[in-house]
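Milestone M4 deliverable, item 7.
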Amino acid sequence: MTDSHCHLASHKFPASEIPELIARAKEAGVYRMVTLATDEEDIPRNVAIAETYPEVFACVGIHPCDVHLTRDDFEEVVRPHLCNPRVAAIGETGLDYYHPAPEGWTEEDYHARQRDFLRRHFELAKESGLNLVIHTRDRSGTASFDDALAIYGDYSSSVQAVFHCFPGPTELAERVLAAGALLSFTGVATFKNAQICLDAARAVPLDRMMVETDSPYLAPVPNRGQRCEPAFVAHTAQRIAEAKAIPLAELVETTDKVCESVFRFEK
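Output delivered:
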């Protein structure tokens, strides 16, 4: 299976451990991983990992929580990597209305810069023919989803978007699907309070979804509380297969095909 979203360049994964992480993933049946950048310094580290390990592909982009630390012409940092065959998509980008605005920024200006960056990531995707991985998070309500979906509407005819780490509910999943985007589920689906997430996973057609770890975060049960790693995506896949009442092999086969339709996995 494929871990469609992890962060192997995270400081929580020392470079010396990467071979062991990949080996454990392969032992768990995870033969392919997509590692995503979040800031300017993170981009070359993720690309280097993808260039070193054939099991790994990279995505390049600026996370919404880092827009205030990023140069205005961030495209000049991202664009040179888009022709690299080890780069599979653009991301992680999106809108984060959960974390407070940094010092010196108003909420309005901070969120406006995030929206501007998201649009410009979509422009890069349209220009390069790559697809996009979107982060959304709110303190309450669905404002980040609403705004991201509105922006996606301007690009949905030319760019496929994946809303990663989807928590539910089903009504929001239906809106994302109606917009033409895809959804990806994390270890949240295995948590004790995961009913809303599982209800959404049941409702989403198998050919419109992926599974991921978002490692080193959100370790699934039975690894809850540990540092998450790509091998753990097997637990999430198993739980969602159970919730959908289908064989694990069917979920793995179909979600792998979804990944291959979204990401550029060149040999």
